[in-house]
Hints:
- With about 100 residues, the protein is of the alpha+beta class.
- Helix content is about 15%, strand content about 25%.
- It has helices at about 20-30, 80-85; strands at about 15, 35-40, 45-50, 55-60, 65, 75-80.
- The strands form two sheets. It has a three-stranded antiparallel β-sheet with strand order 1-5-6.
- A hairpin with a 2-residue loop joins strand 3 (about 45-50) and strand 4 (about 55-60).
- The radius of gyration is 18 Å and the shape is extended.
Amino acid sequence: MMKRYRKIPVEVEAMQWDGMMETWDKFVELLGNAIDWKHTEVDPDTFYIDTLEGTMAVEVGDYVIKEPFPTDDRKFYPCKKEIFEKTYEPILPVDFSMVTNAGYE
C-alpha cells in the first residue's frame, strides 16, 4: 500500500521576465556573476541560464526562481508562467510597525 505525502510549503523569491531592458538590468544586478547568463541577439526576448539540468531558455513571461535550498551548482532556475502561477501564490508583506508589546514586559 502506498503512503500519502504532502509537499512541504516553501517560500521562494522570483522575478518575471517581461522582455524589457529595465527588467534585464535588474536580473543582471541581482545575479551578477553568480550564474552564467547568455543573452542573444538572435532572439532578444529570450536569454539562457545554466542550471544543474543544463542550459535552459527564459522566454518572456517566464519566472526565474531563486533556489530556496541553493547549492554551488544551482542557485536559480526558470519556470514557465503557467506552472509558476499554479504552484505559487504571492505572499503579502507584513507591516511589523503595527505590532505592539501591549500587555508584555
